[in-house]
């Protein structure tokens, strides 16, 4: 296996350094393709080497003094960058958060040396996240080449900094690889902070007042979690004489575990920290897809899955499971009231992450099996949906769901892709639904009936907002408005591969369960039992028929629909476009069809503040109880 893990980090980091220097758009696009393919090849090589070695736990790099010093220097550089930008924008409290945690980690490294141990580890869970980041993230980068060209044609008022944008995407991937492969908490913290800083820079890409404000909100919330991470490192080094993640989990040390869990809650945008991910929607769509599917938020749930054995049956686990379940239902409810496509996807992301977090907090074999499957399906489906919405926005000039009425007849290819992505999020037999059923069963087995209620009602609200959107897309609505598909071939390449992967994951669900999820559970808990009893061939046959239902239905609808524009009776004289008619007073009236958004009942203004208060109060009380009890 040798140097492949280091190469997997260094290669995208080198691409990040080179891409801003390439001014020619075509050459830069070729460089992005090459860098993305290189990432996929290296991840595949790591997978092959790991499997050839027995697919067990492999520990690497014990003596790393030079790299340790380089990382310490890198942490100081990141701190300096944050301080400089905070002074420029007068965000002075952020300086204290950044300097406090960086200096604490540096002090711990220099004054509390621990016994030499492996700094990296390759196992099933790390390998899974590497594959997700390499392939989902890599294809997002390929998609971004065409998207950014169309984006700046559509947004001429924004300065074209595409080179910088691509650089940050690849730096994000490099940090993600380093984070999931790190066994040493100090190394993990270094890559953790890189993701925080890069997300800050991506969210502020357009440099508008809203973008800058949202980027600093994301920064201080993630730095707050980073501060908890830093305190956990310092405590573990001073008291437990270790900064190895596996040893911290095995010891069950309450204070480091709860502080690491707190950091993971901020990174995965759980209540009361969800607003930073909602604010990230101001950034171009590829960064949203990367933040929501392959990297940033997955770092948080990845850490919680690692911590799961230490969370089971503890106050820390109660805190994590409650916050996850509460986030799931509240954000599902708020998603109903959204008509902006990216905001629906954002609330849906936070909601589904909440379910994964709740599973990790319970910390038993069944829930971790569900968490792993939810992570896989969510990564692919949500990346596909963000890319499709971005392409629709560039084609229509809007990402309003109401503007997508009858899109099946206007942009059929994009609608097919959207249909597969939406079906993957909530319809049977797609894996998200099966994983939710397993989570529900495990919540019942754990006698956690509050989570049962959260999951039951949260799933009902999920059904409502996805069905509303899918129905809008497939409505056979004729209009004189011409929609020209401005999606480039590289964008379609990425989206079709994502859609194919979604269908294959469903078709091969029994194998995904037995070959991926089960070994991860065994590695974390030492043993596992069969979660679902499935006859492989029968299940695959049922899956094959079922997963083709939505795209087949869309195809038949488009084939059977009349292409001729026919004026309809509208309660008055039709003015010729099926959207306006003359009423009995001779005045024009506008006819429009709209979904029911229940904004008074489920609007963000109504639910967000009380949800933040409740969740913040629970976290504060639980942290005090855990830390006070341990001290």
The count of DSSP E runs of length 2 or more, i.e. the number of strands, is 5
Based on CA inertia axes, which overall geometry fits? globular
Helix content: over 70%
Instruction: Name the strands of the widest sheet in spatial order.
Output: 3-4-5
End-to-end separation in angstroms reads 42 Å
Largest sheet: 3 strands, antiparallel
Going by helix content, strand content and strand pairing, the class is mainly alpha
Q: Average pLDDT across residues?
A: 87
Cα Rg: 24 Å
Flag low-confidence runs. Answer: none
Count of alpha/pi helices: 26
**Strand content of the residues, in percent?**
under 5%
Task: Explain how this protein is built.
This protein has 631 residues and is an all-alpha fold. The protein has 26 helices and 5 strands. It has helices spanning 4-18, 25-52, 65-88, 92-111, 124-154, 162-181, 185-203, 209-240, 245-251, 254-267, 275-279, 285-294, 296-311, 315-336, 341-362, 365-396, 407-410, 412-426, 431-445, 449-474, 489-507, 509-525, 536-547, 549-560, 599-602, 604-630; strands spanning 58-60, 120-122, 573-574, 580-582, 588-590. Strands 3-4-5 form a 3-stranded antiparallel β-sheet, with no helix packed on it. A two-stranded antiparallel sheet has the order 1-2. Strand 4 (580-582) and strand 5 (588-590) form a beta hairpin. It is globular and about 85 Å long. The model has no long low-confidence stretch (mean pLDDT 87).
Defining traits:
three-stranded antiparallel sheet; two-stranded antiparallel sheet; 631 residues; 2% strand; mainly alpha
């Amino acid at each position: 296996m040798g140097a492949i893990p280091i190469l997997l980090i260094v290669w995208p980091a080198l691409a990040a350094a080179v891409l801003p220097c390439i001014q020619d758009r075509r050459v830069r696009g070729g460089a992005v393709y090459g860098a993305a393919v290189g990432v996929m090849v290296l991840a595949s090589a790591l997978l092959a080497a790991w499997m050839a070695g027995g697919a067990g736990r492999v520990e690497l790099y014990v003596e790393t003094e030079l790299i340790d010093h380089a990382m310490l220097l890198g942490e100081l550089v990141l701190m300096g960058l944050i301080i400089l930008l905070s002074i420029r924008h007068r965000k002075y409290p952020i300086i204290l958060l950044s300097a406090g945690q960086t200096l604490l980690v540096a002090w711990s490294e220099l004054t509390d040396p621990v016994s030499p141990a492996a700094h990296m580890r390759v196992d099933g869970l790390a390998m899974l996240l590497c594959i997700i980041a390499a392939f989902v993230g890599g294809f997002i980068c390929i998609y971004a080449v065409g998207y950014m060209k169309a984006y700046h044609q559509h947004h001429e008022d924004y300065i074209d900094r595409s080179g910088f944008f691509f650089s940050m995407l690849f730096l994000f991937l490099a940090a993600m690889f380093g984070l999931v492969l790190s066994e040493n908490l100090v190394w993990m913290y270094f890559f953790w902070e890189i993701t925080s800083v890069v997300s800050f820079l991506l969210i502020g890409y357009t440099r508008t007042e809203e973008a800058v404000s949202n980027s600093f909100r994301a920064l201080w919330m993630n730095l707050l979690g980073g501060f908890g991470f830093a305190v956990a490192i310092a405590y573990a080094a001073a008291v437990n004489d270790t900064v190895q993640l596996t040893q911290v989990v095995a010891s069950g040390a309450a204070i480091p575990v709860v502080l690491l869990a707190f950091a993971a809650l901020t990174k995965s945008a759980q209540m009361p920290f969800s607003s930073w991910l909602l604010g990230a929607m101001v950034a171009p769509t590829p960064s949203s897809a990367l933040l929501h599917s392959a990297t940033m938020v997955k770092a948080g749930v990845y850490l919680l899955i690692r911590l799961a054995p230490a969370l089971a049956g503890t106050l820390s686990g109660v805190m994590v499971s409650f916050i996850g379940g509460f986030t799931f239902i509240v954000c599902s409810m708020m998603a109903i009231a959204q008509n902006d496509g990216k905001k629906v996807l954002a609330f849906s992301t936070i909601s589904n992450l909440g379910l994964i977090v709740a599973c990790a907090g319970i910390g038993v074999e069944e829930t971790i099996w569900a968490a792993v499957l939810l992570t896989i399906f969510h990564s692919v489906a949500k990346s596909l949906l963000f890319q499709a919405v971005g392409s629709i926005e560039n084609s229509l000039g809007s990402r309003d769901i109401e503007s997508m009425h009858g899109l099946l007849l206007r942009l059929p290819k994009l609608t097919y892709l959207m249909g597969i992505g939406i079906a993957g999020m909530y319809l049977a037999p797609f894996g998200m639904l099966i994983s939710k059923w397993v989570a529900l069963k495990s919540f019942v087995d754990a006698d956690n009936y509050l989570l049962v209620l959260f999951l039951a009602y949260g799933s009902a609200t999920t059904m409502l907002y996805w069905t509303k959107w899918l129905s809008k897309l497939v409505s056979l609505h004729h209009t004189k408005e011409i929609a020209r598909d401005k999606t480039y071939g590289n964008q379609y390449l990425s989206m079709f591969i994502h859609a194919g992967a979604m269908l294959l994951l469903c078709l091969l669900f029994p194998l995904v369960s037995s070959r991926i999820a089960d070994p991860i559970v065994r590695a974390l808990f030492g043993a596992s039992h069969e979660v679902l009893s499935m006859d492989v061939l029968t299940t695959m046959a049922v899956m094959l028929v079922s997963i083709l239902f939505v795209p087949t239905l869309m195809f038949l609808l488009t084939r059977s629909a009349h292409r001729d524009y026919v004026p309809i009776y509208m309660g008055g004289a039709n003015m010729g476009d099926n959207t306006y008619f003359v009423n009995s007073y001779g005045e024009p009236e506008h006819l429009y069809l709209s979904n029911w958004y229940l904004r008074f009942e489920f609007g963000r203004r109504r639910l967000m503040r009380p949800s933040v208060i409740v969740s913040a109060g629970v976290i504060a009380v639980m942290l005090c109880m855990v830390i006070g009890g341990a001290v």
